[in-house]
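Tutorial sheet, problem 5. The four components below are modelled jointly, 400 residues in total.
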Amino acid sequence: MTEHTSPGRPGRWRSGAQSRQRVLDAARELFQRNGYAGTTVRAVATEAGVDPAMVFYFFGNKQGLFAAAVDMSAQLPPAIDAIFDGGLDGIGERVVRTLLENMDKSERAPLAILTRSGPGDDQTETLLRQYIDREITGRLAALLDTPDAALRAGMVNVQLLGLAVARYVVRVEPIASASVDELTTRLGAVVQHCLTGSAS
Amino acid sequence: MTEHTSPGRPGRWRSGAQSRQRVLDAARELFQRNGYAGTTVRAVATEAGVDPAMVFYFFGNKQGLFAAAVDMSAQLPPAIDAIFDGGLDGIGERVVRTLLENMDKSERAPLAILTRSGPGDDQTETLLRQYIDREITGRLAALLDTPDAALRAGMVNVQLLGLAVARYVVRVEPIASASVDELTTRLGAVVQHCLTGSAS
DNA sequence: GTCTATAATTAGATAGAC
DNA sequence: GTCTATCTAATTATAGAC
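Model answer (structure tokens):
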């Protein structure tokens, strides 16, 4: 009974952690749906079931909230690592399937949030660019030793961005409703060809 | 000297046409850069060098301005028609090259505006979806007579959306700086394979 | 930590003079 | 057609009680 707000020793999780988490979840959902400017901290607070002032208490200001929402330090590294552990063989299908399964799972994928958002001109797009470069392009290019490794990896970025936008942002048919297996087979082959196929 | 504001017979172009055009140009640029909610009509008016009230005079409200900015009736039909006139042979390269040349020309492409915008949930994305369905998917699928025609056309949508987003929205390297010829060759082959290649 | 004000700013939209 | 002035509503952000 003396543990619920004791400052030094957390009785549960310092008692504000779950509120903070709910705010983050709500922020990811709304930023993804309505973009940065289209999302109000009031709406986030309402969605999270807390007071608007709490959001500022936790994250300082709206930009801080956004930064926390799209921060993906140690977000999906387990799945991503598994993609590259198998080497080049069959990597096309693995990368497509991983992307699909992660985004279908409706864990708010930073990819979708960043694609639909953008505070000013630079902030968000730079973030997304760096994320793609670091997490995808860099690791893919490292597996190749051809002189056009960067371009081949870039072609894969086109495939993955296109898939994400077509299926989750624009929701164009029949891509939006296609099964994970179908897309994995078809786009996986394309990705594989971009990486290991003969240059045309 | 009696012609500058005569209502029935336009002496020049009813004298407000160029203002309207400047507003539209400014709107396209700002909507593309900052999205719908991130763009204020005041900013559009300032960019266009007119008074904010003029924007409402011309377009009624902000949504009307947006609708006019992304309206692409008879926008680029000449170029698009040329893609399909040549039949299936080499259509991959033609569609990629046409897209690149049109968007590089920095004519505010509705594709870029719509990709970065989205008033609420539905309005814009529905518009973009319908545009893609009508202008690309439909015409591509019509050229094919395989049972998976729709899926093949959908795969092309993934390629084109991915290219547009990677090169013009996120500007990820080396796609953003690659030459039109390089991209046309590489992605054209992929698109061609998606359409006429053997199903894997 | 959580909530109740409330300050300060800004946005969309309108009325009306010229 | 174009501009000035203004109204209304919503938003970010803060101060402070509990």
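Marking note: Residues 5, 14-16, 19, 50-54, 57 of chain B lie near DNA strand D (CB under 10 Å from a C1'). Full credit if you identified this.
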